Amino acid sequence: MRKQWVVLAMWALVLLSPGPAAAQSELERARALYNEGLYDDAIAAAASAKSKTSAASSATLIAARARLERFRATRDPQDLAGARAELVSLNPRSLASQEAIEWQIGLGTALFLEDQPGPASEMFTSVLPGARAKMSAAEFEKLVEWWAASLSRVAEALTGDARKVAYKSMQTDVREELDANPLSRPATYWLVVATRGTGDLDAAWNAAVAGWIRVGSQADATQLRADLERFVTQTLIPERAQARTGHRLDSRETMSEITSIGEEWKAIVARWSANGPG
What is the pLDDT of residue 276? Predict the structure, then answer.
């Protein structure tokens, strides 16, 4: 009889103990919360999943990426330090192929947030070719955004011919991405930035107008159009006006040209808006 009770007790422990399926369920919950932007909840769910050996590495990766996103909102240095420590603790060879890509994206993001755009751009560039087939469209767009932003930061820190060369290289790379996906929002924006950086202000203007129109009624079009509007009005129009007049930015001639080009931009925007003139 005692032997039977021992056997029954052992089976009870097996049934009550969380097994691989439970660990996987907790991991999937953490990942879903991360994708929904609920980073506090994702970190808590990942902490629970970490206690299961089979899910520890994947849960650590999710927690690290959630901390990076939370740092962007709160600027709490503990989040950045925590994310760095979690990323460093992982062995990429123990991760699935997609997770290995996500790990490198996490490293690149952390480097960018630490104001290290050069190493960050190297990290993003190395994973970009293989990421398209392994990531969702939304996640891949985020990667393109980080990659292009890091390239721009590297180029902007240079001067003279070196700056133009860096922006020319960026322009080529971003153009290739836009050719592969003409509706890419980050590639649309950063092509304008890169082209302006090469000094070809008319080509940058053309890219801005084409991009503003091409984005059409896509989801999130409002944000891209707002970003383009800000860059065009605050940077591109003044530089283009000054290049045309050859005078100081605050001169009467240049200020008049700024107004003229600004009116041209407003007319294009009004004409091509959904509620614009027919």
Answer: 61
Per-residue pLDDT tens digits for 177-214:
999 999 999 999 999 999 999 999 999 999 999 999 99
**Whole-number percent of the chain with pLDDT over 90:** 77
* 77 or 276: which leads in pLDDT: 77
The answer to whether the beta carbons of residues 21 and 54 sit under 8 Å apart is no
Enter the tokens of residue 164. Answer: 């133009």
DSSP 235-276: IIHHHHHHHHH-S-TTSHHHHHHHHHHHHHHHHHHHHTSTTS
> How far is the C-alpha of 100 from the C-alpha of 103, rounded, in Å?
5
Return the number of other C-beta atoms located less than 10 Å from residue 3's C-beta: 7
DSSP structural state of residue 75: -
DSSP annotation of 233: I
**Angle at which helices 201-214 and 237-245 cross, to 10°:** 150
Say how many residues make up the chain.
Answer: 278
Quick count: other Cβ atoms within 10 Å of Cβ 47?
Answer: 14
Three-state SS at 183 = coil
Distances (CA, A) of 124 to 24, 95, 183, 239, 269: 28, 18, 20, 30, 34
Closest by CA position to 60, among listed 79, 71, 78, 46: 46
Per-residue pLDDT band for 217 (boundaries 50, 70, 90) equals confident
- Give the span between the Cα atoms of 42 and 205, in whole angstroms: 42
Q: What is the arithmetic mean of pLDDT over 78-96?
A: 95
Q: Is the dihedral of CA 100, 103, 109, 114 positive or negative?
A: negative
CB 143: neighbour CB atoms within 10 A? 22
**Residues 145 and 186 sit within 8 Å (Cβ to Cβ):** yes
